[in-house]
Structure formats: C-alpha cells, structure tokens
Design goal:
Structural class: mainly beta
Helix content: 10-25%
Distance between the termini: 134 Å
Number of strands: 103
Number of helices: 11
Largest sheet: 6 strands, antiparallel
Oligomer: single chain
Strand content: 35-45%
Radius of gyration: 58 Å
Length: 1484
C-alpha cells in the first residue's frame, strides 16, 4: 500500500494541496471531472462500474499517460486538521453537449462551485483564486481533455479484452481511521477511504464484535458514500472506550484498519447531562433540521404500584426517510436506560416512556431530549408518586432508594432514604431484608429496628449475589417493603485490588493474572486501620492487607480494648474475617474503645496492628437542624413555588421534604415523596382558590429534622404578569390627519384584567423608519383608537402595548406600513372586534362592532363569511343570504370537531365594503363542564335566570347582557352573584323585557350561555308565576274509597305537601259532616293523609263525598260520586267483608279445600285452617257420608290433608299424625269420584269447605295424575330379545286409565301379531318381532294428560338399528340352540347301593333335536352293551341301563353322555355293591 501513496502524502499527516500551482490544480480537477463522467457513461454498458472506481488509484493504474495527483475529499482547517469530508459533485456531460464555453461563463461556474464548496465544507481555508484563461486557452484545454478521455477509454477497453482480472484488486485503505481521545458525552467520528474492485464491503467492529446500528438506535451511525466510510458514535461514555476495526472485503481479499477511542470525564463544573447543542449546517446531509415537540406531557401524579406513561409527539422538518433522531429520557438530569421498571418506545413521530411499576424512586423531573445533527429540543415535567395505601392502618410509608455500598466477601453496607409519610406516628426504626439472587425467599437481617438509615449486613456467602429491601415500622405497624436494590456480589474489594487486568479490545477478553505469593510465610501487620463509621448500634473498621501474606489468602482477627485498660479481647474468636472490613455490634453505648487487627493463615498468626484512636460508641452523625425561613410564591392556579433557607451545619444532607396544609385544617400532606437537594421546589396538585401554609424538613442518614416554621399563608392562584403583546393591527378609517386603528386582545393577559392600551407610531420615509412616538399618554380601554396630528400622505407604522396591574407589556410587532390619506370610497369600512361566544359543537354566537368608516351612506346590514381554518382563501362562503341589521348572529356549525374562522362585511346603499380581519381559529366542540342558563320561578312567583360556572378563577366575573349589550340599568332586572352562581331577577316581567339574555364569565376558557325570552316563553313563565303566587295544594292521590276489616268503608286522599296550619272540611251532598258516631275522621299532617271512615253503608249514604283543603293561601278539593250500580256494588262488598269478619272469629278456612297430586301419584286433599283450638273438630265427608273425624286438633293454625283411598275402612288412629288425616290406597279409580266436604266446628261456630270431584272435576284430577306419570317417564330405550326388538320406558306409577299412544315416523302404530305393546309393572313396552328395514325410523310414546301431553322419542335407524338387529340375531340363535340341544331329563339317582346278586335297572329321559347320540361310561370308559350290561335307547326318548346280576366288580362311577350338534350333556351316578354277612351285614 505504501507504494501507491503519492509522495506528497508520505511527509504530511493529512493531504495538503497548498504546494500546487493554480494552473496544475485547475487542469487536474478538470481532467478528473471529465474522465469520471465519461467513465460513468461507459461503465453502464460494460461491467456496471461506479463513478468512484475511476478515481484515485484506478486512474494511476489504467491511464497510459503520466500519473496525475489523486483528488482529495477531505476538508481541513488552517492547521491541516481534518474537519469533514467534501462530497464530490457529479458534473455529467454538460460540456460535451454545450460545446466550448466563453471565458466569462467558465469563470462564473468555477467561482460559484468553489464558493459553494468553501462555504459548505471548508470554512477556514484560504481563498483560492481561479485564473482567467483566454478563449484560446479554454478551447485548447477542452480539446486536450476530449482527446485524453478518448485515449483512456480506448486503453481501458484494450486491457479489458486482454485480461479482465487486471481490473480486480484487493481492498486498500487510502486513508486509515485515526484514534481519538474525547470527553464523555461528546460525539466522535472515525473516517476511512477504501479503494478496490469489485467495490469492497466495509464492516465496523468494536472489540471484534460487529456493530449493529439497529441494536442501539441513535448510538451508532454508519455512512458510506463515494468510497468514504464513517462510523459516528453519539454521546460517548466509558463503555465506548475500545479498539475499533474497519474491515474491507471483496472477492479478491480482505484488509483491516484499526483505531482506538478513549473516553475521558471532565471534572469541571459543567452540566455533563445536557451538553451544549450543535447548531449550523450538517456536513453529512447539507441541511438544517427543525425539531418541534408538541402534545407534551404535563405534570403527572401516580401512586405506588400503578403504571404511568409519558409521551410527546415530535415533528422533525424536513422529514427524511429512515432518519433516526437520538431520543433520550432523563430523570433529574440522569440519563435513563431501558429496564424492567422503565420501557421506552419511539414510533417515528412519538416518544413514550412507561413506568411499569411506580415507586417513589421514580419521582422526579422527567426530560425528553430529541437530538438531531442540528441541535436538540427538550421538554420537562415533574412526576409525583404518592404512597400506596398502607397494609395496616397508620403504618408509615415505604423507604426508598435502597443502595449497596462497600461490598465485601461477607458483608455489605445497605443505605436508604427515610419516607416522607409516617401517618401520624413517628418511625421507630427500620428492618433490612435480603434475598439471594435466583430465589424468592426474603430473610430479615436485624432483630431489632435501627433508626440510622445505614446498616452493615453480615453473614453473606462469598461469591453469591444478593438484593436488599427495607421496611419502616412505627407503633401502628410495618410499612410496605421498598423497591429491591440492584444485585450486589459478596466479593472482597481487596481481592480485586490485588488483581491486575488488561483488556484486549481486539478479542473482547479480559486476561487476569495474580501475583504468586510466597509459601509458608506468617502474614505481616495490617496497615491503615481506621474506624470508618460509628453509631450507637455498630462500629465499622477498615484496613489494608499486609504486604507479606503467605501462600494462601489471609484472614483476620479483630480485637477490642476499653479505653484506659490494657485488656485486649478478641471479638471474632470462632470464625476469622476474610475481608479487610468488619462491623462490630453489641458495644456499650457511651464507652470508648480501641481496636486492632491480626492476620493469620496456615503458617500462624501475625503481630497485631497499631491500635486505633479511642472511639466513643454513639451516633456521630446528628439529625440536621430545621431549615430556615420558608417563602411561598405564586406560580400557577394549581402550584406554588416554595423556597427556604438551607439547614445550618447539616452533615451528609440527603435532601428536604416539603409539606402543605390548607389553613385551618391542621392536616399536613407531603408535596414530595423523594427528597430534593435544592432549596426551591414547585409544589403541584394544589386546589385553586384555597389558602395553604408550608413547612420543610431536612433529611440525612440520622433521620428527619424538626419541621421549619410555617410559611405565610398564600392563596393558590396564577401569578400576575404583564400581558403579551396585542396583534392584528388594522386601519378602520383614515382622514387627512388622523387614522383609526384596531387590534386584537393579547392571547395571554397575565392573570389580571387589561387596564388599557398604549399606541406608538413612527414615520416611514422611502423605506427608512424613524423613531417611535407615543400616540396616547393616557391608556385607552377600547381596542380601537384614533391617532391624530398625522401628516397627510405620509406613511406610518404602528405598535400597541397592553397594560394590567402588573405593568405595561412588550410592544406588538410593527404593523404594515399605512399611508395617511383620506378615504373617499362609497362603501363602508371593515367591521372590527369580532368575538365568538357560546361555542358549542353545533353552533356559536358571533359578535362584532360596526365599521368606523360608514362610507357615503349609513350601514344598513352585515354579511358573515365562514371557512375552514386550513382552507385557502377561495373557500370563504357566506352564512346569511340576507343581510342582518344586528351586530350579532347565531351561526350553525357545518361539522362538529372542525376548526373554522369567520369574518364580517358591512354594506350600505353603495354596496358591500371590505371584510374584517378573520377571527382566530375556533374549534366546534362543546367543552366539558359547559352549562346553560336555567330559568326558575320561586314560590313567590319571582322569575329569574341562573347561570353556574365550575371553572371560575379568583378574578372571574359574571357579565349579564341583553341583546349582547351589557346591562347597567337595574330598573327592570337585578343581578346577584354568590360563589360560582349568578342570578338575574326580573322585577315586573313585561313585553319590554323580551330579547336575548346572555351571561359571560371573564377569565375562563369562554364560559358563556344565552336565553331567548320570546312572547310565548314570557306567557308561559307568567302562568307559572301566577300558579306560584296563588298556589294549589298538590295531591298525590285524589279522593278514593276502600273497604277495611269488618266491612268498614274508608274515604281517603293524600296531599303532596301540607303545613301544620292546614285545614280540611268533609262534605256529603253539600252538607258539612263532622266527627261523630257515624263518621270517624283523621288528618295526618306529616304524611298528608286525610281519611274518613264509616262502619257500614246504608241506602241513605248514596251521593257525593267531598274533601275541601286549605293551607294558607293554597286551596284544593277532591270529590267522589257514589250512586247507582257503583254504590250498590260497594255496599254488597262491604256486607260480604262484614260477614267474612264474623266467620273468621271462629274456626275457619284460610284456604279452601283443594287437591294436589304428589310425585308418587298420590292424590291428597288439603285445606289450610286457622283460629283452631283443642276443642275444634274436623269432619270429612264424601257424598254426604262421614269418612273421617278428628276430635283432638292440637294446633291453632295449619293444614288438613286427606289422601284419597279405595278402601272404606279407615286406618288405625294411632298411625295418623295429629294434624293430618290420611286414607291410603294402591290405585286411583273412578270409585274415588265424588263430592268431598270438610267441616270445622267448636263452641265458637263452624265453617265448611266443599270440593266437587265428579265428572269434569274428576277428569281434571286424573289428567294431573297422568301428567305426573308422564313426567316421571324415562327416555325410550332399545332392547334386543330373541323374538325381535323391544322399545321401553319406565314410569314411577302406572294407572289403568292412562292413555298411551305409540308412533312410528309420526304416525300412530296399528298393532298386529308382529308389533305389540304392553305394560309389565311400571314398564311400558313396544315389541317388534322379526324386524325388517321397514321398521327403521323414529319411534315415540305419547302420554295424554288432557293438555299438551308428553312425548318421548328414540331413533331406531342407522347404527342403532344395526346393533339392535345383530343382537336380536344372536339371541335368537342362542334360544334355538338352547331349545334343541341334547339333554338328560332325569331318572338317574346320585348313588345306588345294591346287594350282590341282585339286578339293577335305571331309566332316564333323553331329549334333543336332532336325536342325540347316547354313550354310557364306567369310570370314564365307554361301555358296550352285552349280556351283563344291557344298554338300550328306545323311541328316541328313553335310555335304560340294566345289570342282570350285580357283583362287586360292578361298583364304580357311571355316566350317560348325550350329544347332538347343539350341545352335550351328561348324567352321573355311583353304584355301590355289598355282600350279605351273617354277622352284621357289612357294606362294601
């Protein structure tokens, strides 16, 4: 590669072209441009070579002419330091097309190109002059270029034909990447230029690991252009310190170049989190990006355990495809990285961050930073995290920010921050829990709570990793645990210190070596022993290992000594310490101790170290002093800025907690749950209009300080500021020496009403502006002003400033230049001061002021125009076809949710004048909380209009108008405002009050409403007012009548509302009746119930009853007419109720006799009786004949039952329950039909109840029985028999009267010898003998119950039929075989005992078809008939066995075996022969 480097680059660090002559430089650049363009054209038809392949090295190889210098793409500064790359400009073939250019054209093109390159990429380079060549020189140079290009092309084609491989060569680095040392969070670029053919592919590596820009969006950026390759590393950190390699590869080979990047941290007072932006033109793109953050997230509030998302929409212009800005999120200026707690997402136009599980550590100021090559944009807002609800009432909030420090082999120091919330009970201390990584078991580290926010945890296992959490405790209980700390490994830092590590960037490995200690050496004395931390609970010692340590690792013994004594006591006698850190517990508080350490190993125990200075056991860190004076300052309508004086002499201060309380409530709420270190904080989430006081506490590891003094009370409302500048200045009228101006109100009025405006003007002479002059010394309140004392035909510019109680705001932008010349046009000038109120989704009210310049005639009407806000000017369209003479108009919105603008034009007799300035864009949407004017009429008939606004500010006012002119005269209407409600009351409503009434609330987002009082509406309101002035007592119910117990008649009504002064008169047929023996009256004024009762009705009581009511000035009456049939019916019902009452004085029926069919198909007669005593007798009758008597009823009220029975004999009285009468039977039949009666009687009277169970009554009862039977039936089932297929269903009870119908394919079955039905017990069956395919189909059994009936179905087809038919065939064959198989029918005994010499004859019956074969066996051997054994088989039925003369040899077991094709059967018997004996006749 060194051979290809030009001589001028060998002695220069970077390419320097300063040595060239201008002529040579111009010739070379023109040569390169023309050759590149020519080569580009030819490469498209040959091998597809790129333009860059003919530059530099390739030209030196292929060109037959002497080598020329290679072009450079480096941009350098005055010190020859590379500052960027210059992208070469493709010139194309313009010169060939246009021919020879003259000198002026060439000079202009060269100058323009050179200036563009110098301004864009090489700022700082010296200006290079371009010599002007004559036309002759230009022609000669052009001819030489054409000739030279032609020769080069011919030479290339020749070499291609001779040897195509000569074009290919391995990659070569023309410029290698160089190493860089940069500050942290800076950007760095590595550049290289690579040549080779085919074009090499360049891959970048970091420590031999391929760099993937997509894996870390925004971190790396790879660019390849014109054989120039670059790697950009954005916002470097320590992890970016590495060796980087650029590997170039093609088909001829591979070559790599290396460069190192070292990242250093700047220790100065510079905000490293937010480095300064870079502005200006980006060399990589040549454009400037504009970044805008819209739809920003606001101050947010969350609670522990919840999920919270923040997001912004980002607009980057121009919008380049695939361009990835750097999106970063910060919390309290600390860069956030994705984790299980924090998820970040960039969708291309929206950046979001999701906090998956909020903890108080997540509280803070969140900043979104969008970085492009042109700079960055940020947006910040605070996120507050409240404590979750305590698991135990009154328990404190959870600690936060748990961290691990000074980790060693067997212990680690855990630190945390105290919570801001203790819920009324001070925190007693904290418990520390630990969990080994990989498990879920948490174990408590300390037995007693510790008050110090730092604790050394001992007993860890070396090499294992742990997580820690902390819980706070007060007298109410334990808090929720804090968020777990990051995992920490139990590893001695002393071991790490004795290790040396070297990083090999090119392998990605860490090579670790360790010194070889000497063998058998007693360790030396530890050094640097000191007390690093001392509290009343523990003391932490720290030291350094000795230089001589022996063969293996050393361990330590710690000794203590009480100050003033010489007695040293070993603390860890059982287990030596492995790490040079140790925490001592159980020391006496207040005593002084000295400590020393000994080293030990297998060679022995070393000498002790020097003792420490005496240390007194106790908290050396004091709780900080309370902060100083607290000063609150207004900020917004929901926030206050609180500042305070820092705590004096506070050591190791963690931060401050701020608390707020509404004045008078004595309830303090935390404003922050994460300590803030600054002495200024913005407290958000406050209630607008409330008055608060604040106090502050300081926090360090020792605890929380006492609260500061309370601040001065402050009311929460927006701070007052000067208003923003007005805008939209226009001219309303112009005369010779004066101009009338108008402008629009500022978009921000500063939190206070604008008190006036100031107008300035200045002269403009031939484009040169003069000084500003005040047009008015005293402010004007209107947004229009006449500027006088101007010069005719002079040009002027104007500016306006708004003022409020905070002062005068900044002036507006200068207006257009206006000429002071008198208007002479005939049409009127433009209207002004357009305002939109009562904005809703479908309509709004537009107001305006008439033009100042009337024109030749008076204005006689106005036209309103509308268009969409984003639409072009041509989209303006009229709202009203006919001009309106009013200065307001209600406009219907074409489309909800669209944004519109409006303008107004005035007309007179001469025509329509100039349009007004358009309004601001107005969104057609009803805002949440919008209310309307409510018209009310009170009890005195007073008519009022009421308007309520929920979004009031402290400065808001209700402004009432009539026809959109403010009401100032209260002669006809009065106005009153209380809180957020305002009322406008009419004094004497009349036609003069007709019009549109509106109410506008100032200092809101446009809260307004209107009400149109028309003639019809006024008439309606006056009627309501009259009803209220002359009221009628409202009635809930009109006068009604009802019957009471014993047939009493009650007349009653109920009034809606009546006072204690109410009166009632009772009138019958125009005669007032009073309380007496016949009439009983009652008036309950609490419920409004008015009643009059009568014992009974007589014919004299027929007529009209009226109740007349009076309550103050309110009256009412209600009447009821009882005459004719209505009266007679009521009288009859009264008599019936009277008799019923007397009936119920003795034993009586509460429910009369009825029947019930039980699930067991029993019919039970029952009745419910009441007012029973012991002497009451119940008698049962059927058809007038007594069937049962019960003379000793022991209950006062119950149910009598009788089960219908077939037998006439009653059951035994002892078997009958005292409250029931049963009559049992097996079946219900027609014999049970009859008329049943039960009589109750005692000395008080009697009562009877009858039930007719004859004819239709009996049928209905039996139908219910049949219905129970049908519902108890089971589903139809299929059963195969030897005769065929049987379908059956079971019922719980069967009655002979039950009607059952069988169906096949929905048609009733006609029964034959082959298809039969029947009943066996409770089984109902259908038998199909010898079934065929015609018998397939759907079968059903239908039960008739007099109503809809019940049907059970089964499908006998398909597989079901096939299975049933196969089973039928099998059973049929088995039955045939069973009937016809060979059988021995009997006649053979089991044992035969016979005397010797006697004859034996046995006969048995044989059956079977076909005729069976008969075989006789003796002792299992076949016998043959002979003279001794005679064996016969006669008539195919009888088999005989005969022994003519029996002897002892005939004793044994005999069998007969019968056999045919259907089976075999045998019969066995035993023959025992004995001889006669003269002595005793023994048997043998």
């Amino acid at each position: 590669m060194s051979g290809s480097i030009p001589f001028y680059q060998k002695n220069h660090r970077h390419y320097d072209r300063g040595y060239r002559s201008k002529e040579m430089e111009s010739a070379v650049s023109q040569y390169q441009a023309s050759s590149s363009s020519y080569a580009a054209r030819s490469s498209s038809t040959s091998r597809g070579l790129r333009v860059s392949s003919y530059s530099g090295l390739e030209e030196s190889r292929l060109s037959p002419i002497p080598k020329r210098s290679k072009p450079t793409y480096l941009a350098v500064d005055r010190d020859n330091q590379i500052i960027g790359y210059v992208v070469p400009i493709f010139r194309g073939s313009q010169e060939f097309a246009s021919g020879l250019s003259d000198t002026e054209e060439a000079r202009m093109k060269e100058s323009a190109g050179h200036m563009a390159r110098r301004n864009l990429f090489t700022s700082g380079l010296e200006m290079e002059r371009t010599e002007q060549s004559s036309r002759k020189t230009a022609m000669r140079e052009s001819a030489e270029r054409i000739s030279l290009s032609k020769r080069i092309h011919e030479n290339e084609e020749y070499h291609k034909r001779m040897n195509e491989d000569s074009l290919m060569h391995t990659p070569e680095f023309v410029i290698k990447p160089r190493s860089h040392t940069v500050w942290e969070k800076q950007c760095v670029r590595l550049h290289c230029t690579v040549s080779g053919w085919p074009d090499p592919r360049v891959v970048w590596y970091k420590n031999n690991v391929t760099i993937d820009p997509l894996a870390q969006p925004g971190k790396y950026k790879l660019v390849s252009s014109y054989n120039v390759h670059s790697l950009e590393i954005n916002r470097c950190d320590f992890d970016d310190t590495a060796q980087y390699r650029a590997s170039a590869m093609n088909s001829k080979g591979e070559l790599s170049a290396f460069a190192s990047v070292v990242v250093k941290r700047f220790k100065g007072e510079v905000d490293e989190a937010l480095p300064s932006p870079r502005y200006g033109i980006v060399s990589e793109y040549g454009i400037t990006f504009q970044t805008h953050i819209v739809e920003k997230f606001d101050v947010s509030f969350g609670r522990e355990g919840e999920t919270l998302s923040l997001g912004c929409t980002v607009i980057i212009y121009p919008n380049l495809q695939r361009y990835q800005p750097e999106v970063q999120w910060y919390r309290d200026d600390v860069l956030l990285s994705p984790s299980k707690w924090t998820h970040m997402h960039w969708s291309g136009d929206r950046a979001t961050i999701t906090l998956t599980h909020l903890n108080k550590e997540d509280e803070g100021l969140y900043t979104l930073r969008i970085t492009t090559k042109s700079g960055y944009e940020t947006h910040s807002a605070y996120v507050f995290v409240r404590d979750a609800d305590a698991e135990m009432e009154g328990a404190p909030g959870a600690p936060l920010d748990v961290r691990c420090q000074d980790a060693n082999k067997d212990y680690v120091i855990v630190t945390w921050k105290q919570p801001a919330v203790d819920r009324g009970s001070s925190i007693m201390g904290y418990f520390v829990d630990r969990c080994e990584v990989g498990t879920t078991h948490w174990s408590q580290c300390n037995d007693t709570p510790i008050k110090f926010a730092r604790f050394p945890v001992t007993g860890l296992v070396e090499g294992r990793s742990y997580m820690f959490r902390v819980r706070a405790v007060n007298k109410s209980g334990m808090s929720r645990p804090s968020r777990a700390s990051e995992p920490v490994a139990a590893m001695d830092p002393g071991d790490r210190a004795r290790m040396r590590g070297t990083s090999a960037p090119w392998t990605g490995q860490i090579i670790v070596t360790e010194e070889e200690p000497a063998e058998g050496v007693v360790p030396g004395v530890p050094v640097g022993l000191e007390v690093t931390e001392a509290t009343k609970n523990y003391v932490v010692l720290s030291w350094k290992p000795p230089g001589e340590r022996g063969h293996e690792g050393v361990m330590y013994y710690v000794e203590k000594c009480v100050s003033g004594t010489d007695s040293w006591q070993r603390v860890n006698t059982e287990i030596p310490v492995k790490s040079p850190r140790f925490a001592l517990f159980d020391l006496a508080e207040g005593k002084s101790y000295s400590f020393r350490v000994r080293c030990c190993n297998s060679a022995g125990v070393g000498e002790p170290s020097s003792p420490t200075e005496p240390t007194t056991v106790g908290d050396q860190l004091d709780i900080p002093a309370p902060p100083g004076r607290v000063v609150p300052i207004r900020n917004t309508d929901t926030s206050v800025v609180v500042s305070w004086e820092a705590s004096r002499e506070a050591k190791e201060l963690v931060g401050y907690y701020i608390e707020a309380s509404i004045v008078g409530s004595n309830v303090w709420e935390p404003c922050n749950n994460k300590p803030v270190k600054a002495t200024r904080f913005i407290c958000h989430g406050l209630v607008t209009g409330e008055t608060y006081v604040f106090k502050v506490k300081a926090v360090n590891a020792a605890g929380l300080s006492e609260s500061s003094q309370e601040s001065e009370p402050i009311e929460v409302k927006a701070a007052i500021a000067t208003p923003a500048p007005p805008y939209g200045i226009s001219v309303l009228e112009c005369v010779r020496d004066a101009m009338v101006l108008s402008w629009k109100q500022p978009t921000f009025i500063g939190g206070a009403d604008i008190t006036g405006y100031f107008v300035d003007y200045r002269e403009v002479v031939e484009g040169v502006v003069g000084k500003w002059h005040e047009a008015n010394i005293k402010s004007v309140t209107d947004r229009a002003y006449r500027v006088s004392d101007l010069k005719e035909n002079m040009k002027y510019q104007f500016q306006v400033r708004a003022a409020n109680m905070a002062g005068v705001g900044i002036p507006s932008l200068s207006s257009e230049t206006f000429t002071c010349a008198e208007w002479t046009i005939a049409v009127p000038g433009p209207p002004h001061d357009l305002q939109a109120t009562e904005v809703r989704s479908t309509s709004l009210m537009l107001l305006w002021k008439p033009p100042v310049y009337q024109g030749r005639d008076e204005v006689n009407g106005f036209y309103i125009d509308i268009k969409e806000a984003e639409a072009p000017l041509e989209a303006w369209r009229g709202v009203n076809e006919k001009a309106t003479n009013k200065k307001y108009m209600k406009i219907q919105i074409p489309k909800e949710g669209e944004t519109y603008v409006f303008r107004v034009r005035a007309q007179n007799k001469a025509g329509v004048g100039k349009a007004s300035e358009p309004t601001e864009p107005i969104l057609a949407q009803t805002k949440p909380g919008t209310t309307e004017i409510v018209v009310d009429v009170d009890d005195d008939g007073v008519i009022s209009m009421n308007f309520e606004c929920a979004n009031l500010t402290p400065d808001s006012k209700f402004v009432w108008s009539k026809n959109y002119e403010e009401i100032t005269d209260e002669t006809r209407i009065t106005m009153e405002t209380k809180g957020n409600k305002s009322k406008a009351t009419f004094k004497t409503p009349a036609e003069d009050d007709l019009g549109i009434y509106s109410c506008l609330v100032t200092h809101t987002d446009g809260a307004s409403s209107s009400y149109t009082l028309s003639a019809e509406e006024l008439k309606k309101l006056l009627e309501i007012s009259h009803d209220h002035k002359f009221p009628i007592i409202p009635l809930k119910t009109e006068l009604a009548v009802e019957l009471l117990e014993k047939g009493k008649v009650r007349f009653w009504l109920q009034a809606e509302k009546i006072s204690a002064n109410g009166k009632v008169e009772y009138v019958f047929n125009d005669n007032v009746v009073s309380q007496g023996e016949k009439y009983k009256t009652n008036f309950d004024k609490n419920t409004g119930v008015i009643e009059m009762t009568m014992e009974s009705l007589t014919p004299a009581d027929e007529g009209t009853f009226t109740f007349q009511l009076q309550d103050g000035k309110a009256t009412n009456q209600s009447s009821l007419v009882l005459i004719g049939d209505v009266f007679k019916q009521l009288q009859k019902e009264s008599e019936f109720q009277r008799k019923e009452w007397f009936r119920k004085q003795g034993p009586h029926f509460v429910e009369y006799l009825s029947y019930e069919v039980t699930p067991e198909c029993c019919v039970v007669l029952k009745c419910k009786v009441g007012n029973i005593k012991k002497e009451t007798v119940a008698l049962w009758y059927k058809d007038g004949r007594e069937i049962k008597a019960d003379e000793h009823l022991t209950f006062t009220e119950g149910v009598l039952t009788l089960e219908i029975a077939q037998r006439d004999t009653p059951a035994a009285v002892a078997d009958i329950p005292p409250d029931d009468v049963y009559w049992r039977r097996l079946k219900i039949s027609k014999k049970d039909a009859g008329i049943y009666e039960v009589i109750l009687k005692d000395d008080r009277g009697k009562d009877s109840s009858t039930l007719n169970l004859t004819d239709q009554g009996f049928k209905n009862m039996m139908n219910e029985v049949f219905s129970v039977i049908a519902n108890s039936s089971t589903a139809l089932k299929i059963q195969s028999t030897e005769e065929g297929i049987r379908l059956y269903s079971f019922v719980s009870y069967y009655n002979d009267e039950l009607h059952v119908t069988w169906h096949h394919k929905d048609a009733a079955i006609a029964f034959t010898d082959r298809i039969k039905s029947g009943v066996v017990g409770e089984q109902l069956w259908l038998q199909i003998s010898e079934p065929t395919d015609k018998d397939k189909g759907k079968y059903a059994i239908e039960f008739f119950d007099g109503k809809g009936g019940l049907r059970r179905t089964v499908e006998l087809s398909g597989q079901a039929f096939d299975d049933a038919y196969a089973e039928f065939q099998r059973l049929k064959a088995a039955a045939i075989a069973e009937r016809n198989r060979a059988r021995v029918a009997g006649g053979l005994p089991d044992v035969v005992t016979i005397q010797e010499g006697k004859a034996l004859n046995l006969t048995c019956n044989i059956s079977g078809d076909p005729l069976p074969e008969v075989t006789w066996l003796k002792n299992d051997r076949e016998m043959v008939s002979d003279d001794h054994y005679i064996l016969k088989f006669e008539s195919g039925k009888f088999a005989s066995f005969t022994i003519s003369t029996v002897n002892t040899a005939d004793s044994g077991k005999y069998s007969i075996l019968v056999k045919n094709k259907y089976g075999t059967e045998s019969g066995d018997f035993t023959v025992s022969v004995f001889m006669p004996d003269d002595v005793g006749g023994k048997k043998k």
